[in-house]
Amino acid sequence: MTVAQDPTTSLRPGVRLQEMIAANAADWSLKLLQPILAAAVLIGLWELGVQLTGVSKVILPAPSLVAETSFKFFPLMIEQASPTFWAAVWGILASAVLGIFLGTLVSYSKTVMDTIYPTVVFFQLIPKVALAPVFVLWFGKEIEATILFSVFIAFFPVLVATISGLQATGKTYERMGDSLMASRAQIFLRIKFPFALPFIFSGLRLGVTFGIIGVILGEFVSAERGLGYLIMFAAENFETALLLSTIVLLLGVGILIFAMLLIIEAIVMSIYRVQ
Question: What pLDDT score does 145 carry?
Fold first, then answer.
């Protein structure tokens, strides 16, 4: 005797999935709506305050003037954003490679830990702004100097995060790998490195921030183009509206690079979950 099957049974998982997606979408919409509304209120109060007080546009331009300036100089700002974006991207990539490589060496070698790591920490204690002119003397005013300065600032959090992640791997997992006759390379690639990935990407998130700061500091001191150069130009000529417009564009560049990192993180983590 066959029992009649409810035709909606096979659809129920899909329905539940749709309900979860709808619930998450509503939650994310609320999370996005709140800061947008807060920003709109702040901009409205800013505009109203400038109009009521009559403060000089050199001191504090109204948001409407900032928007007008952004449209007026948009081609110039995009042109200047390109070298900043690529310097930051290459600097962050180099920081990731250097930080992960040195972090792995330090984790596996006590000699490297005792010699290189203290030196790295020592140089990180020096104020970065003080070292910017040194990079100009060594590497000139080309974009390479800006990238190197970005690497110098950004690789340290990646280094520390890599060391923390590799050292946090439990000895139980390593002994399990030994019991399966796995080589040192296999234990690293299949156990220690995947375990350290959340730590590494946490360091990379800080590295993105530090890398962009390094690029801007380098452009302040040495560059003849880029958003940092444009900010200095606007400040020296009391073009406060252009300065604020450039800062807003710089924020957009930072968000774009951070979003790229999040996409890479999601891809890498999914690959290791599959394996």
Answer: 80
